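ok trying again, last paste got cut off:
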Amino acid sequence: MVAVHYLLLSVACSVLVSVLLKLARGRGIDVSQAITWNYLSASLLCVWLLQPAPIAFSTLGAHGGVLLALGVLLPTIFLALAASVRVAGIVRSDIAQRMSLLGSLAAAFLWFGEPLNGGKLFGLALGLVAVPCIVLRSDSSRSGVGIARWVLPLLVLLGFAAIDVLLKLVASAGIPFASSLQFSFGLAFVLMLALQLYRHQRRQTRIGLRQLCAGLLLGAVNFGNIVFYIRAHQSLPDQPATVFATMNIGVVLLGTLVGWGLFGERLNRINQLGVVLAVAAILVITAARY
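nice, full thing came through this time. structure:
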């Protein structure tokens, strides 16, 4: 039962991140600033809860570049996720984030030597069909907004797949997960803070308490997603497939319900088919990998 609670909390936190991003602009929150303070909050929580060992960066050699890339990519993709939620909606953005497993699975075949089998190929095929079904909108056009409604979710998918690959590279280098996470959060915060100071100096934004509070909340929820997911795996050490499938399918289904029920995001029949195919792809890939 404890593992179920952790999984439900992780799913809820993942979807809540998208909800907060969706609500931010309407509440006068500068999303870029909120994402900056999010990394401060996540970094402090990482130190407190995970107690990472310090990293001697000079000893990492070539692996240091992987950590640097991760620190740059994290805020970049978070900004892309915020834009996707705003333009394409929670449903498409959350499903695109979860379907990033297609990219990480392809990378596992090409670079990490993961064996290929019929089940994985079938799951990939289902996922590749699901993605265009999900991002397709009946109101899409060749205008900037119309193009962004399908380009941004694809960027989210590719970006989170790239993050997953970088995390695998970090793990293969023997760098503890908590330490790599702390370093990446810290670097992301420094980079985003430099951006906000530049924007403030150019009078493009004003750094204020409202943005700080929103960002700290966003960071707490974002980090909660990570911690509860880790705790679920620790509670079910012999059932990684259960945790993986439940997490991904849970986010797809809850994100769909929240986007449709609370924000009135419309799903045509092709989109609905895409949701079903996405769930099926996750199930097939999970069964074939574990």
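cool. The radius of gyration is 19 Å. Residues 144-172 form the longest helix (29 residues).
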